[in-house]
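Task card 7
Instruction: Convert sequence to structure tokens.
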Amino acid sequence: MKKELTDFRKIAIAVHPKNHQAFTLAEKIAAYLENDGKKILLGHMDENKLREGICDGCQDLLIALGGDGTMLRAGHISAPSNLPILGINLGHYGFLTEIQKDEWQNALQRVLKGDYWLEKRMMLLATLFRGDQKQGEWNALNDAVISRGETIRPIQLEIFINSRHLSTTVADGVIASTATGSTAYAMAAGGPILSPELRNILLVPVAPHLSIEQSLVLSENVLVSVTVHTSHQAVISIDGQPPIKMKTGDRVEIQTSDYEVQFIRFQDPGYFYRNLIPYMDQNPSIKKNNV
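Output:
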């Protein structure tokens, strides 16, 4: 393992706003690092103060405490500044986190010695258009999901790849996913699992009705365009965040983002496959009953 950057002078620590256990641990980590002469920015993940403090050159490292949802938020705020993330797992899954809560002190010692490697994860850029007017754009680490809203009726999705018509699909929705997101909603919808270092765009239909059922693994260089036709509600959601309402005729363009997320890793690069089987064998979010 080659030696990585060790000059971490300014360190941000971010926690889930509803996780009091995380904030208590974050305060311990902050005190430990301040005692080592580091300048610390500590806050809840969604606080403007924290987000504004994580700008290009303002911080050297982001420590995120929580589950995979917290890691997604951390990726969103760190990617524009090319800031590496050390994830401490306080959630269920830990697909994206690197260490458990009782391992933080040893992990920080390794980070400060440069004894780690950086795993770079591709992101997607999703842009919503209404006619020729841009309604918004978002970067996604997991996925962009275009789907029906509260009404339990499918919607019609016109899908183009590089301006060539691929399919007109009647379905509950379609998932555009990165390799990172292939173990999330895309997997639940029947899509393949991709190794996290792959730079592909994965398209997975959700409950298609008399339409194409296969998932597609596409090159990172393609432009995917999805136009919605519906007489009721449709929405787009980025990385599981609150949905944004769409109107019939709205178009979403999806392509590889200019940003990428960097996770600090200590395990060898084969860790993903080694950890995958236990996750598949026993879903940690299911509470087992004693019988």
